[in-house]
Amino acid sequence: MRVFVTGATGFIGGAVTRELLAAGHQVLGLARSDAGAARLEAAGAEVYRGTIDEPDGLRAGAEAADGVIHTAFDHSDMGALSTAAEKDLTVVRALGEALEGTGKPLVTTYGTTALAPGSVVTEAFRPDLSRPRAAVEALTLRLAEKGVRSVSLRPSTVVHGHGTAGFVQLLGAVARQKGISAHPGDGSARWPAVHVDDAAVLYRLAIEKAPAASVLHAVGEEGVTARQIAEAIGQGLGLPVASVPPEQAAEHFGWLGTVFGLDVPASSTATRDLLGWRPSGPGLIEDIAAEPVFG
C-alpha cells in the first residue's frame, strides 16, 4: 500500500512512517522544508512537498496514494487552538474530498485529552461539537457515508518515547524553574499514555484494516497519576516532590495548571478487541526513568 502521511517529519508521524516502511508499505511523506525532505528520503520514503497551510495542495498527494494518514497539526500557538482546529478541519475536508467514492482509507488524529474529565473515556464517546477539534472527528466519521474508509484515531494525552514526552517535558521545565516537582492537590488525576512506537503500530493497523467510521484509542496505560509523573520528574531532576493547592495550580504551572489537574483516563479495550492491537513498549514512568525526557 502506498500511504500519504502528513506530519511525516514529526514525532508521531515520523514513527508512523518508520512503522509503515518496516511493514513493507510505501510512504509518500509531506515535507515543507529541505531538511524534512532529506530526513524522509534517508528513511526510504518518497517526498511530497507542501504544507497544511495550503490544504488544496494536499489533494494530489491523497489522490496519488492508496490511503492517507493525517497526523500533522499546527502546535505553534497553544493559545490559538481554535484557529489551529479550523485549519485542521480545512485540511481534512480537502483530503476527504480527494478520496470520496474511492473506498480508500483516511485516518485522522483527534486525541483523548479532556474529552470527559472524571470518567474513563471509551471509543464510543462522542465529544461535544463545541470543542475546537470535535468537528474534525465528526467530519471524519461522516466521510464514511461518501465512500471513504474513514477512521478517527485518538492518541493518549501523553505520547512518549525516544527522549520525548510532550506535556511531561513542559512539566519538567516548570520543575526546574520552581525548584520542586509539583502536582495539583493529592495528585490523583490520571492521564492516559502510550509509547510512540505502539501508537505507530495502531496507525498501521488502522490504515490496513479498520472498518469505516471507526474510532480507535491509542492508549497503552489507562491512567498514570499526576503524583506518579511528578515523582518521576523529581527523581530524574533530583528535586523534591510537593503538592500545590488546586486553586494555585495556574499560578504555579502556567497554562499547564488546568491541564495537569484534569482526571482524564481513557480505555482502549474496544480498539484491542477490534484490531488485535497489543501495546508492548515501556510505560511512561519506566520510559522517564530509563531515558529522562526533560534534558
TrEMBL record:
PANTHER family: PROTEIN YEEZ, PUTATIVE-RELATED. Residues 3-209 form the NAD-dependent epimerase/dehydratase domain. It comes from Kineosporia corallincola. This is SDR family oxidoreductase. InterPro entries: Epimerase_deHydtase, NAD(P)-bd_dom_sf, NAD(P)-dependent_oxidoreduct.
